[in-house]
Structure formats: C-alpha cells, structure tokens
Amino acid sequence: MNYPIIKCHDLSYNYSGKTALSNISFVCESAEPIGLVGPNGAGKSTLLSILCGFLPTTSGSVTIFDHQPGASALNGRVSALPQDAQLDPAFSIGEQLRFYARLQGLSTQQARLETGRVLEAVALKDVIKEKPATLSHGMAKRAAIAQALIGKPELILLDEPTAGLDPVNTRKIRSIIAELSPTTTFIISSHDLAELGRLCQQVLLLDKGVMSTMQLNASANISPTRFITLQMQPCPAADVMAKFKQIAGIVQITNPQKNEFIIEYKTAIEPKMDLKIIMCMSDNNWQYRQLIQGKTLEEKLFFAEQ
Amino acid sequence: MNPGFLRHLALICQFELKRLFTTRKGLLYLITFAVIWYFILLYPIRFASDFLGQQQNTSESNSFFQFIGFGALLNWKIPELGVYWHFSLILFPLLTVMSSADQTCSDRERGTLRFLCLRVSRDSLFFGRFCGIMLTQTLLIGASLLSTVALITFRDATMLPVACNNALAIFINLIIALLPFTAMMAALSATVQSARQATTWAILIWSFLAGIITILSSYLPALNNLKFLIPGYQMSALSQLTEWQALQLAYIPLLQTLVLLTLGRWIMQRQSL
C-alpha cells in the first residue's frame, strides 16, 4: 500500500527579498519515480535543497517520513544527488564513499562491499582509487550518483542526474532508477522531458515558485478524445493535415513543430486511429519517424493551452 | 542526544586524522611542524637551557630575563620545559589558527557538506570536525613534548620523572589553551567562504577587537569584561606561571570555548548549505 513520503503544506522560501517558492502544497506517495520539472529559476533545486535539509523554509511545513528535513531519523533513509556538489579533492573516490557508508551505519567490511557495489552500478569500479580531480564531468556526476545509492535508501532526490552524461551512461542511470523503483522512490528534477516521460507517472511542475501536479495518463481513460503525436520524415505539412482531416473521428490536427503533428480524435468513432493514420501515410508514400500514443510530456506541461 | 552522535563524532575524528596523515596538505603541515620544532629544539631550547642552567642564580641574569619579560623562565625546575612553554604559547595558537581555518568552509563552498549532511546531523559534523582538529593538535603537542623530554633525558637521565610530571602539566595546559582558538576557527569557518577569510577574520579579531573594547569600556567600564571572550586573552598571564600553576587560569579558555562553540553551533544550524 502506498503511503505519503513527503508532505508539503504552504511551503514558501524567500531569499534576498525574492520569492523562490510560494505557498507550495503537495503530497508524494511511495510509488513510481516522480518528475520535477520547470523552467530555469523556477525553484526546483531550492525545493530539493529544502527537502534535503540544506535550506531552512521561510514559512509553511514540510515532512519526509513524518520527520523534519535534515532530522537524524532520516539519515540513511533519504539520499540525494545535490546540484553541483563535488567530492573532497583530497581523498580518493573509494575512501570517501566508504566513509559515507560508515556514517550510514555500515561496518568497515560492509562499507567496502557497498562502495564496490555502487561504483559498479555506475560503471566506475576502475576509478575507486582515483581522486575526484582526475574524473571527467560525466564521471564525477556518476560518482555523485553512486554516493546517493549507498545503503539502498527509501527516497532518493536527484537533481539533474543525466545532465552532462553521454547516451550510454544516461541509459545506465535510467536502468538503475527503473531497477530500484520497486523499493526506492525517486524524485527526479530534470529538463530532459523525454527522459522523465520514460521514467515517471507523476510530474510536479514548478513555475515561478508555484507548483502544479500532473498524473500522466490519468485522464486518458475518461476523456472522450485522445491524442496521437506523429513525427514525420520531411513532408508537405499542408497536404498531410488535409489528408488526415478526411479520416473519420479526427477532431483536430495541429503542427506545433516542423514535421510534427498532434492529432486529437474521438475514440468512440475510431478506437484504432493509429492504424488508420499509418494506412493513410502508406497510401501517400509518406515516411514517419515516430508515432506516440498521447502527447509528449513537453506538450502536456508547457503547451497544453495552445 | 541522538544515539548515533558519538559514533559519528568518532568517525569524523578518525577521518580528520586520516586527512593529517594521508593527504598532501596534511603531510605538508606535518613536515612544516616537524621542521619548525626541530630548529626550536636544536637551538633555542638546547642553548637557552644551557645558558639558564649556568646563570640561574646570578642577579645579572635574573634582571636580564625580567627586563625582556622572560623572568618566569627562571622559576622552571627544568629550563628546557620553560623555554618550550614560552615558545609553544606563541607557536601552537598560530599553527592551530592556520590548520583549523578550514573546518567546514571549503567543504560548504564545494558542496561536500551536502553529501555529509545527508548522513550526519550538523551538530555531529561541527563538533566532529572540532574534536578532530583538537585530536591532531593533541598528537602534535604530545610529539613535540616527547622530543623535549628525550632531549632532557639525554642531558640528565635523573631528570626523567620530574620532566614527565612537568611535561604532563604543559600538555594539559596547552590543550586547554588551544581549545578557544580551535572553537573560534570553527565558528568563523561556519560563517565565511574560505580558510583565508577565516584566518583574516581571526587576525582582525585579535588586532582590533581588544582595542575597540578598550575604547568602548572608557565610556562603559563593564564592557571591559568582554576581553575575556577573546581567545588568547590569558596568554601573557599564562606565560608567567609555571607547570601545574598554569591550571589556575584554565577557566578562561574553557569559558571562551563554551561561548565560541555555542555561537559556532548556532551559526552552523542556520547556515544554508
């Protein structure tokens, strides 16, 4: 059974007279990974810093597992990848991760094994004896992700976990998150909406310090219309839209970006619209790159009203 | 108290010791310390003790040492330890300020404190670093004192019991004397952004705070008591005392440490990481 992990009520944070977060209220349950999105300066990192206990709140309340952020009771239960945080340059990666593991209550032997495990998970076992200064940006990020995995915490807050990582390592991090998701709840702040779309069922949208929550696919079953997002190879947009409009059941077609179409259709008239569209494209010799059921996360979050 | 507090304290202390003995910065500090004390032992302590040993009861030497402010040297049973005491009262506070200036500031600026604070309370971190620095200072004081005792024993083996007793008195007194300096740097380090800033503030506190308090106390005499809070306030009086007598003034550094640690903890708790 899911239970609330984070309870946030009327949370505000001001600094230097500027409002970073304004009366935010939300509840996160232990579940699938939760995305945290918003434009630059929206307050995502501030919110994560408050949840980690790095920043005090200006007003309102926030609890994690019914404790204040930063409480000793949360040590080892909550972990994070803080934005731009770096390991100590004086010690090797292995020494530091072992120290963190020991602080989380592991024995010397367990700490050694755990350090090996988390470095293996992020494909950094080879650099266990290296100092942080010798690592590339991507490797340093993976080392920081490794520290967040120590001791299998119940909640992991990741601030831009895949920023600066190559595709191979991005996929590696994604598979780690997917693998741990049954036992660990992730809150992932990211600008990579495609990444979040793959991982998350719930997204928290922060904009100008105000938050809204979106359950992805939640309204799909009850709405009389559905969407298909179609990405085409270079094609005549006007012709494509004209042909598609002739298909029974299509309510609206928009062309938000070059070679991309969002098709709204009535399921009651044509439940298998995807097949109809593919047949239409085949009849006209148009090539498509991707056909997605529903809107992309980017469309849902930032261009819903258009 | 959190049950994990003492365990975390011990682990952080242990890590600070590792920093001293295994990192480049720590080893550089150790080498500097060893070189400084090598020369102090080789020249001032050895020669001054020879000189004092020969001149101890002459009125000329008495008046000379009184004139340069080192009259208390003549009261020490073992001259080497008297000279050691005078040098250490100047050197150890300086070395402590330098070595303890970066207790939390660069880790905070780098974001490393964030990794640590996910695992330990800010109290554990603040007091752990403080205890770690004090532990390293204790080891260094012990090492330099043992070298001095070895030098004394080499000169006169019969002095060993007295030397050990006096060295223990110095050991305890020095640790107590260094407590407020470390606590002051812990508080400054929790406030400022770099070790250099912390050191600059420490120098400003010594240079100007006493002067400002003196000026203000001419208007309100009660303010003169604030000088008690400046680390090292008792040092000149301390240098006039010998062996176990110096513990008479131990209440001043202990009080200063209490105040400075309370202040530092208050800052650390409110500091954004």
What is the topological layout?
The complex is a heterodimer of chains A (306) and B (273).
Chain A lengths: L3 E12 L2 E12 L4 E4 L6 H9 L6 E6 L13 E4 L11 H11 L4 H14 L15 H13 L5 E5 L7 H14 L4 E5 L3 H7 L2 E6 L2 E6 L9 E8 L4 H9 L4 E8 L2 E7 L6 H11 L4 E6 L3 H6 L4
Parallel strand pairs in A: 3-7, 3-8, 5-6, 6-7
Antiparallel strand pairs in A: 1-2, 1-4, 8-9, 10-12, 10-13, 11-12
Helix pairs in contact in A: 2-3, 3-4
Chain B lengths: L4 H18 L1 H32 L3 H9 L11 H21 L5 H6 L1 H6 L4 H34 L4 H32 L3 H25 L15 H5 L11 H20 L3
Helix pairs in contact in B: 1-2, 1-7, 2-4, 2-7, 4-7, 4-8, 7-8, 7-11, 8-9, 8-11
Short précis:
With 306 residues, chain A is α/β, with parallel strands linked by helices.
Task: Characterise the protein shown here.
The complex is a heterodimer of chains A (306) and B (273). Chain A is α/β, with parallel strands linked by helices. Chain A is built from 9 helices and 13 strands. In chain A, the strands form 3 sheets. A 6-stranded mixed beta sheet of chain A has the order 5-6-7-3-8-9, sandwiched between helices. A 4-stranded antiparallel beta sheet of chain A has the order 11-12-10-13, with helices on one face. In chain A, a hairpin with a 2-residue loop joins strand 8 (202-207) and strand 9. Chain A is globular, with a radius of gyration of 23 Å. The mean pLDDT of chain A is 86. Chain B is mainly alpha-helical. Chain B is built from 11 helices and no strands. Chain B has helices at residues 5-22, 24-55, 59-67, 79-99, 105-110, 112-117, 122-155, 160-191, 195-219, 235-239, 251-270. In chain B, helix 4 (79-99) runs antiparallel to helix 7 (122-155) and helix 8 crosses helix 9 (195-219). The mean pLDDT of chain B is 87. The interface between A and B is medium-sized, with 32 and 29 residues.
